Amino acid sequence: MGNKILAMIRDPKRIMYSLGYHGFFRYWSAEKYLKMLYHLKTSEHLDLENPLGFNEKMQWLKLYYRNADYVQMADKYAVRQIIRERVGEKYLIPIYGVFANSNEIDIEKLPNSFVAKTTHDSGGVFVCKDKHTIDVAKELAVLDKRLRINYEWYGREWYYGQFEPKIIVEKYLTDESGWELKDYKIFCFNGEPKLIEVDYNRFVDHKLNVYDLDWNYIDFYMTSRNDSSVEIKRPENLDVMLEIARKLAADTPFMRVDLYSIKDKIYCGELTMCPGSGFVDFQPREWDRKLGDMLVLPENNKKGM
Questions:
Q1: Is the per-residue pLDDT at 15 higher than 70?
Q2: Each residue of 220-272: pLDDT tens digit?
Q3: Disulfide engineering: 234 pairs with which of 46, 110, 200, 215, CB 3.0-4.6 Å?
């Protein structure tokens, strides 16, 4: 706790972020709050009248666009029904149950390896490779703390305030390496796949490489570093993956569809409407504008709401 306080003193922005997470600004208008947060995050002013970059357009969508499917899509458990209806049951990761909190989970009934995650965020994940070598109850209890985070308060992603977060326990998956699982994140703009981000070494030295649809390497990255020396082969079933992404992203201005490919088997991980809550650290910075140019904003359908 002392280290956290010291870090906040050294970087006052972290105090504002913490206040946002805990709902201190929840009575501010969403527009006022996001303008403040955007400036803190980027040192730039948020232009909602003429948004150009990807991050600006994400803020615009949070404020002025509503899609009835977004609440279900944001919930990692409820979204399974959308995946089932649009592309089929076979693309769902097998699950062992969904629970209100860790106290409901009977560890003895779980297999030796599994993945537990909260249904409303990306950071609440516990990967258990061998439950006999770790304090599973302690690790699961950490997820209870994640359940209390309200992302509607922090990033004004309205859909997160429309469902009760839970803990979902899934089958532990690995690819051909036997120890990791590459994550193929397909960026869809106005329903069409445009870019593929491949995340690898997730729990050792997390990196990501970005490719176009012809599997040409693109030298930019977001959040985690890329590595041009790492050759990631084009998945043999990439065309199928792109078609899955296209169906799941239909009728949305932007959607990131996260898929896993294990030999000839494809699984859908999650759907993301607003990566990084629209505060993505693009390197080089010019890629914020390049991705922004790919996104045509819909009409403001929140007027009068």
A1: yes
A2: 988 778 877 788 999 999 999 999 999 999 999 999 999 999 988 999 999 99
A3: 215
Q: Which residues contact 128 (CB under 8 A, 6 or more apart)?
A: 110, 113, 114, 115, 116, 134, 136, 139, 172
167-170, strands of its sheet edge to edge: 95-99, 167-170, 114-118, 125-128
Cis peptide before 284 (omega within 30 of 0): yes
Distances (CA, A) of 259 to 101, 155, 164, 256: 26, 25, 25, 10
Separation of alpha carbons 69 and 302, rounded Å: 15
**219 contacts 23 by C-beta, under 8 angstroms:** no
| Cα gap 202→26, rounded to integer Å | 33
Q: Render pLDDT for 35-62 as a digit per residue (tens, 0 to 9).
A: 999 999 999 999 999 999 999 999 999 9
Residue 2's pLDDT is what?
55
Q: Residue 127: its pLDDT value, please?
A: 93
**53 burial class (0-12, 13-18, 19+ CB within 10 angstroms)?**
buried
**What fold does the segment set 47-91+173-298 form as a domain?**
D-amino Acid Aminotransferase; Chain A, domain 1 (3.30.470)
Q: Which position has the token pair 């981000």?
A: 197
pLDDT for 122-174, tens place per residue? 888 999 999 999 999 999 999 999 999 898 999 999 999 999 999 999 999 98
Contact call for residues 217 and 209 (beta carbons, < 8 A): yes
* Integer CA distances (angstroms), 50 to 16, 57, 59, 60, in order: 27, 9, 12, 10
Q: Which of 99, 80, 271, 259 is nearest to 169 (CA)?
A: 99
- Break the chain into its structural domains and give their ranges: 47-91+173-298, 94-172
Contact call for residues 292 and 58 (beta carbons, < 8 A): no
Dist. CA 210–CA 217, nearest whole Å? 6
